[in-house]
Structure formats: C-alpha cells, structure tokens
Design brief:
The protein has about 325 residues and is mainly alpha-helical. Among the domains are: about 5-90, no CATH class; about 130-160, no CATH class; about 160-200. It has helices at about 5-25, 50-55, 55-75, 115-120, 170-195, 210-220, 255-270, 280-305; strands spanning about 35, 40, 80-85, 90, 130-135, 140. The protein has a two-stranded antiparallel ribbon with strand order 1-2. It has a two-stranded antiparallel sheet with strand order 3-4. A two-stranded antiparallel sheet has the order 5-6. The radius of gyration is 44 Å and the shape is extended. Mean pLDDT is about 80; it is low at about 310-330. Involved in ribosomal large subunit assembly.
C-alpha cells in the first residue's frame, strides 16, 4: 500500500470542493427574476449567437437550461428548511406570477328547485352534523353509511301495522319503499341538471296503454349499434314492420347508358333558359291569394257599416269569394 501524505489528501479535498463549487456557481450578467412559489425563473440575458453557431443547438440549449436550473435550485436552498422523515423540505412562498389557465373557469352550478324556494322564503341553510346519538346502542354513530344510527335494515322483527295486510311481507315492502325513494331522488337530480342546461325532460306516465308500451319497447330494441338486428326476441313476439322509408342509392358500377342518360337530362335542365313551372301549384296559389283578398274586402266592408250585399268578389253571392267557391278548389 503506497504511503499518502496529509498534504496530498488536503490538496485532493480542496480540488474536489473547488470542482463542486464550480459546478454550482453560474455567472450571469443580469440576475434572473425568480418566482419560487411557481418554481419559475426568468432569464433576460441575451443569448450568445457565437456559441449558438459554434456548438450544436441541442448542446447549447441543454447547457443554458442546466445553468438556469442550477440558479433556481440555489435560490430554493436559501429558504428555511426542515427535516421530515429523512427528507429535507422547504416551505415555498406565495406565487406572484399569474399563470394562464389551460381551461376556462368552471361555471357556477345552477340552483336546485329547493334552493330557489329556500332563497325566496328566506330559509337559512343548516349544516347537519355527521354524528348522531343512537338510543339503541347508547353511542354516537354516523348519520349515513355503514354502521349508521337508527339502522332499521338490521331488524329481524317488524311490527305489522293495523291498516296493512297481515299476509304481506313487511321486509319486501320496506325494501320497495327504499328503492322508490332512491329512484325519486335520482329523477329529481336529473331534472335539476336538465333545468340548469335548459333541456326539457319527458317523464312517461304511470299508466301506459298497450300501444305506448309497444312503441317504447320498439324504440329500446332499435337503439343498439346493430339497430336491433342481434337482439333476442320475446316468446310469441310478432315480427316488427319497418317504419319509414329506406334510402336507396344508385350503384357505383353498373349500366353506363343509364348514367349517360341522367347526365344528359341534367345538362338539358341546366341549359334550358325557361324555368320549369308547376301549373297546378301556381293555379292553387293564385286562387288562395284571390280568396284572401276577397275575405279582406268583406271584412273591411263589415267594419264600415255598409249594409246589403256587395257585388264582386267580396260579396256573399256565388262568386269565387263566396262560401260555395270552396267546392271548386283543388287540394
């Protein structure tokens, strides 16, 4: 083992300390602006164009990011620190730089129907405590959830009311009432959401006819991705008829003569300067306008107080403006 003097050891330690100090020391002409609350540093020093061109771009940017990060870490070590479970932590100050949000601020939740009523009547909101006293177990228990107070689902014996059927299962009745309350609360919640979004909600009536139930079943059947093609049929279910008109498309490859004739017909329509007019539709429109004009003249004549029958279209005779003229109208 070679002998080592104390001077050599001290020189090596000083060299290592100098190397470490050199790594953590960064010189900048302009000091960086720090926002320790956001763990951000802003470098206003101009970039050295010569070094940027001389070295590779990635190496220059990596070196610049390393120096700025080192300065940010040096600034963080100036904060008061404490040890928490073999880790040194520092409490960051409040940030002073306003950062832009990635998404817009969430809109406030619209008030429910009860909240609007309570605000109108001036009913204050009371916050219920989580713990209540249970007289059966003589201890404080949760108001809701597991092992809650006054939990009637654990009863092994239920008293039958005088007005109830003695043969009715009271446990099933209690479970049914609970499910109805849960469904009612869920319906009210959905109504509040729809009212906040200004969407109408249609609730089916309690007593539905056979036709309404069949229509609802048909809509539920065709609401799948396969439009009900792979749905299992019920026993004695009749085949459903296709409702509506099915779209038909011309084949992409087929009779070229037919395609040529369609294109020629389209060119004839485009080249024809005279517009194509539906004579029946035009005649019906003219007759409706004449009837409306006759009714307007007749109404004005009544307002003027002029008695007797009038000649022309506005009178009550057998002309076109009279009541018998409707027999001559088309559809």
């Amino acid at each position: 083992m070679a002998a080592c003097s104390i001077e050599d050891v001290l020189a090596k330690v000083e060299k290592d300390e100098a190397e470490i100090l050199k790594n953590i020391t960064v010189h900048k002409e302009l000091e960086l602006e720090f926002d320790i609350g956001n763990l951000a540093a802003f470098d206003k020093n101009p970039a050295d164009v010569g070094l940027f061109r001389k070295h590779k771009k990635e190496e220059f940017l990596r070196s610049l990011a390393r120096d700025n990060t080192q300065l940010l870490i040096n600034e963080m070590w100036k904060l008061p620190t404490e040890r928490v479970q073999e880790a040194v932590v520092a409490k960051l100050p409040e940030p002073h730089t306003r950062l832009p949000r990635e998404k817009p601020l969430p809109k406030p939740r619209p008030p429910t129907k009860w909240e609007e009523f309570a605000k109108l009547k001036g009913i204050p909101k009371k916050k219920k405590t989580n713990l209540v006293w249970d007289d059966v177990h003589k201890e404080w228990r949760r108001r809701w959830g597991y092992k809650r107070a006054k939990d009637d689902t654990k009863d092994w014996l239920i008293e039958v009311p005088e007005s109830a059927d003695p043969n009715e299962d009271q446990f099933a009745r209690r479970l049914k009432a609970k499910n109805e309350r849960v469904a009612k609360n869920e319906l009210n919640r959905l109504k509040n959401i729809a009212r906040g979004q200004k969407v109408s909600v249609q609730v089916p009536p309690k007593d539905q006819s056979k036709a309404e139930l069949g229509k609802a079943m048909q809509l539920a059947r065709i609401s799948t991705a396969s439009v009900g093609k792979f749905q299992d049929k019920l026993p004695k279910e009749k085949p459903t008829r296709t409702v509506g008109k099915k779209r038909s498309f011309q084949p992409l490859i087929g009779d070229f003569n037919m395609e040529k004739q369609r294109q020629l017909d389209l060119l004839k329509v485009m080249e024809n300067k005279k517009p194509r007019m539906n004579v029946t539709r035009a005649v019906n429109r003219q007759m409706r306008e004449e009837d409306a004009e006759a009714a307007r003249h007749k109404k004005e004549g009544r307002r003027g107080g002029k008695g007797g029958k009038k000649k022309g279209r506005g009178g009550g005779g057998k002309g076109r403006g009279g009541p018998k003229s409707k027999k001559h109208h088309g559809k």
